[in-house]
Amino acid sequence: MPEILANKKIAMIVAFRDFRDAEYFIPKEILEKAGAKITTVSTKSGTAVGADGGDIQVDLLIQDLNPADFEAIIFTGGPGCLQYLDNESSYKVAKETVEQNKVLGAICISPVILAKAGVLDSKKATVWSSPMDRGPVRILEEGGAIYQDELVVVDEKLITGNGPAAAEKFAQALIETLTEE
Questions:
Q1: Is the separation of the CB atoms in 143 and 113 below 8 Å?
Q2: What is the CATH number for 26?
Q3: Residue 3 domain-assigned?
Q4: Mean pLDDT score of the chain
Q5: Is the distance from CB of 142 to CB of 115 less than 8 angstroms?
Q6: What's the pLDDT at 180?
Q7: How many domains does the chain have?
Q8: CA distances, 25 to each of 8, 41, 87 (Å)
Q9: Residue 56 in domain
Q10: Angle at the Cα of 160 from the Cα atoms of 32 and 110, rounded to 5 degrees
Q11: Is 42 exposed, middle or buried (0-12, 13-18, 19+ CB in 10 A)?
């Protein structure tokens, strides 16, 4: 595969504990194969640990993340996502990413953060939900999003995926969006 994303810088934001491994490692591998340089971002320094036991070194703290330094910002999901990332630092990053017309991605439960940041108004998006828990869909709709029951939804430079099963397609959508620029 040619390095179609050569030298493109992408920040992947993870919960310091219990990020969803597949939603980080699968897109990261696909994006790196395409030539992108990945920076891992979290709320604490050190080693972030996934819900399935994978671990990664945190390169940058979210409060030090400047979207202007990257072509894309991606929020990964997982059980720890809302505990660690549902906060003002994340909202600020999401808003700045959109204001700077950068690519913004979110997978699994993390589109909830984008909705709370106010960046999904009138945008098509998806989010993880289940028959027992429609809360995430309600939060998106309350944030003005047009919810789509799809694996991956692309609305201009906004890419959302609904969970680990969407990880590969989510990464491909990111690549397509980044190469259309």
A1: no
A2: 3.40.50.880
A3: no
A4: 96
A5: yes
A6: 85
A7: 1
A8: 18, 14, 24
A9: yes
A10: 95
A11: buried
Which residue has tokens 């894309």?
72
Q: Distance between CA atoms of 93 and 69, rounded to whole angstroms?
A: 12
Residue 130: CB partners within 8 Å, gap ≥ 6? none
DSSP letters of 138-178?
A: HHHHHTT-EE--SSEEEETTEEEE-SGGGHHHHHHHHHHHH
Instruction: Return phi, psi of residue 127, to 5°.
Output: -160, 155
Contact 100, 68 (CB under 8 A): yes
Rounded CA separation 9/39 (Å): 7
- In 3D, which of 70, 31, 35, 32 has the Cα closest to residue 171? 31
Q: What is the residue range of 33's domain?
A: 9-180
Residue 14: inside a domain = yes
* Amino acid type, 22: A
Alpha carbon dihedral 34, 165, 19, 47, in 10-degree steps, equals -40
Q: Which residue matches tokens 């993880």? A: 128
The pairing of beta strand 55-57 with beta strand 47-50 = antiparallel
d(CA 163, CA 4): 25
Report if residue 90 sits inside a domain. yes
How far apart (Å, rounded) are the C-alpha atoms in residues 109 and 123?
17
Q: What's the pLDDT tens digit per position in 91-140?
A: 999 999 999 999 999 999 999 999 999 999 999 999 999 999 999 999 99
